[in-house]
Write a structure and sequence with these properties.
Helix content is 35%, strand content 23%. The chain has 614 residues and is of the alpha/beta class. It has 3 domains: 3-241, 4-Layer Sandwich (Glutamine Phosphoribosylpyrophosphate, subunit 1, domain 1); 244-454, Rossmann fold (3-Layer(aba) Sandwich); 456-602, Rossmann fold (3-Layer(aba) Sandwich). An 8-stranded antiparallel β-sheet has the order 3-2-4-1-10-9-11-15. Strands 5-6-7-8-12-13-14 form a 7-stranded antiparallel β-sheet. Helix 15 crosses helix 18. Bound molecules: 2-deoxy-2-amino glucitol-6-phosphate. 2-deoxy-2-amino glucitol-6-phosphate binds at residues 306-309, 353-355, 358, 361, 404-406, 494, 607, 610-611.
Length: 614
């Protein structure tokens, strides 16, 4: 999705803005632009990549303050005219989000004499701001101060926004505001950065201030003043980001995705570290603020998530039901928010979102809260919007994930769900202390077992090459391996562009078998467990129809070789935990397939890392 950046300080703004925009490239975009404020508003914008924008920049652009933008087209083509910044008189604006009432505002502004150049919703913001500041299209004398004009503008906007603006009449001032789109300030020494996320300025500072919904900040190089939309001053404190810049760089890997797959031994370990006691068979999740009694009284869990996070949520459902005996539903944010859910009893809503900014998930959680539910979040991003909308937060400690395809955040989400289900299971008597100890022992082996899979990744690459030209792929699994199958298919389709479907293996004969042809690759997750024999039957079923079966199976399983054409092995583990290991195999399979097909692995077409619009 769009990324916005801003800078005010003592250094030339243009190179800093460009560098910050490059750090946000992973969010997905199709055009880019910057405005530097000097004696005028020096603006460059272009369709295409940031490199295309750089190619039209002069050697030097004077000015120590400016704004920049990467646009992911929603209203209007991805062309130069629609690229941000948008200008009105002496004001320039960049915007991330969607202004829902822009047509109505546009009409009003056209009546007032404003000339619209683009098809974007954003252009209404800059003209509206101009109108509130100057009162008419051609005036240059202010009617009010910029804060008042900004407040009046925001009051008229419906939808979501993170906005940054500079005005020639306000030298040295960067104005930012947000509602439902991420925005954070980075506090440097005599300089301040603004961005959609911290990776944009992490190399300059780790000290940050999060802009909250319906807040405006007046930012100068010596500091930022915060105000509510009603003009009330707000006191803000800074926080320090734990990630360092190395964590957000490629570190010698060809792609972020490959690096992030390799980081999973560490990220999985970091996510459970300090939270489990093998001696006591206990899980410590104090940050939940839920007593044993409150956990015992829960009647239902409602999981809300999108995409990969939804797949983790489905695994969560099986775990909560099996370990804690709590009925659990899993809904996508986009469906839940427009449904009529029955939320009676003690319902705990769990929002799973690595970015913490997914618009549909946020809206669904707000909906759930309006029914009086307690809401908690599982997220990877400290200070993200979801953390401010929920009653408690469990952080996955995966570190920054830049590749659009979620990998290490997915396994960290799964680990967090294990911890939660085990904690609930202990509190509700669904898991006895010995079973808990055994699960924790098995959990602690997972990082080493992930490393074993990574050490043999060449075998997975060989398999990927063998089937890289396929047009269709199917992934099948049962029970805990069903979400693994869904995620395997999602990963493959998003980065390799191969049509891939994930199915509950028992559903094959209810339709999809009609699609199985000679040579259709079917990935069967057939790890040892209570559905193993059923999986063997499904494998025989598809083999009989000409499919080529790639099985993901335990290292010590000799039976599987009789039926599968290729076997990708995982170290034997507890049945409940094997989905984590199988997922790493499928991530590598997708990665190497996309690599073989020459796809842009980290930035797949049409997709964005953080889906901040509906
Ligand atoms: C994952 O590979 C996808 N890029 C996508 O499905 C993603 O999981 C989804 O957009 C949800 O994002 P979130 O976890 O940040 O809410």
């Amino acid at each position: 999705m769009c990324g916005i950046v801003g800078y005010v300080g003592r250094n030339p703004a243009a190179p800093i803005l460009i560098d910050s925009l490059k750090k946000l490239e992973y969010r997905g975009y199709d055009s880019a632009g910057i405005t530097v404020l000097n004696s005028s508003l020096t603006t460059y914008k272009n369709a295409g990549m940031i490199a295309d924008l750089e190619s039209i920049l002069p050697g030097e652009i004077k000015g120590n303050i400016g704004i920049g933008h990467t646009r992911w087209a929603t209203h209007g083509q991805p062309n130069t005219t629609n690229a941000h910044p948008h200008l009105s008189g002496d004001i320039a604006v960049v915007h991330n989000g969607i202004i829902e009432n822009y047509l109505e505002l546009k009409e009003k502004l056209i009546q007032a004499g404003y000339d619209f150049k683009s098809e974007t919703d954003t252009e209404v913001i800059v003209h509206l701001l101009h109108w509130h500041l100057y009162g008419e299209v051609s005036s240059e004398s202010k009617k009010c101060d910029i804060l008042t004009a900004f407040r009046m503008t925001l009051k008229e906007l419906e939808g979501s926004y993170a906005i940054a603006a500079v005005c020639r009449n306000e030298p040295g001032l960067l104005v930012v505001a947000r509602k439902d789109s991420p925005l954070v300030l980075g506090l440097g020494n005599g300089e301040i950065f603004a961005a959609s996320d911290v990776t944009a300025f992490l190399k300059h500072t780790k000290s940050v201030m999060f802009v909250d919904d319906m807040e405006i900040a007046l930012v100068r190089n010596e500091g930022a003043e915060f105000f509510g939309i009603d003009g009330t001053p707000i006191t803000k404190h800074s926080t320090t980001i734990e990630w360092d810049i190395e964590a957000a760089e490629k570190a010698g890997y060809q792609h972020y995705m490959l690096k992030e797959i390799h980081e999973q031994a560490t990220s999985v370990h970091d996510t459970f570290s300090g939270k489990v006691s093998e001696m006591e068979g206990s899980v410590n999740l104090d940050e939940l603020n839920l007593s044993n009694e409150q956990i015992q009284h829960l009647t239902r869990i409602e999981i809300i998530a999108c995409g990969t996070s939804w797949n983790a949520g489905l695994l969560g459902k099986y775990l909560f039901e099996q370990l804690a005996g709590i009925h659990t539903d899993v809904d996508t944010g986009s469906e839940f928010r427009y449904g009529y859910p029955v939320m009676c009893g003690e319902v705990l809503t769990i929002a799973i979102t690595q970015s913490g900014e997914t618009a549909d998930t946020l809206a669904a959680v707000r909906g759930a809260k309006s029914y009086g539910c307690r809401a908690m979040a599982i997220t990877n991003v400290v200070g993200s919007t979801i953390t401010r909308e929920t009653d408690s937060v469990l952080y996955t400690r995966a570190g920054p994930e830049i590749g659009v395809a979620a990998t290490k955040t997915f396994t960290a989400q799964m680990i967090t769900l294990y911890l939660l289900a085990l904690r609930f299971g202990r509190a509700r008597g669904g898991v006895n202390v010995d079973d808990a100890k055994n699960l924790i022992i098995a959990l602690k082996r997972i990082p080493g077992q992930i490393q074993m899979i990574l050490n043999k990744k060449d075998l997975i690459q060989e398999c990927a090459l063998q089937f890289a030209d396929s047009n269709d792929y199917f992934f099948i699994g049962r029970h805990l391996n069903y979400p693994v199958a869904l995620e395997g298919a999602l990963k493959l389709k998003e980065i390799s562009y191969i049509h891939a479907e994930g199915y509950a293996a028992g559903e094959l004969k209810h339709g999809p078998l009609a699609l199985i042809n000679d040579g259709t690759p079917i990935v069967a997750i057939a790890t040892k467990g209570h559905t193993y024999d059923k999986m063997l039957s499904n494998i025989k079923e598809v083999k009989a129809r000409g499919a080529v079966v790639i099985a993901v199976a335990d290292e010590d399983d000799t039976e599987i070789e009789k039926y599968a054409d290729v076997v990708l092995r995982i170290p034997p583990s507890h049945e409940l935990l094997s989905p984590i290991l199988s997922s790493v195999v499928l991530q590598l399979l997708a990665y190497y397939t996309a690599l073989a097909r020459g796809c842009p692995v980290d930035k797949p077409r049409n997709l964005a890392k953080s889906v901040t619009v509906e």
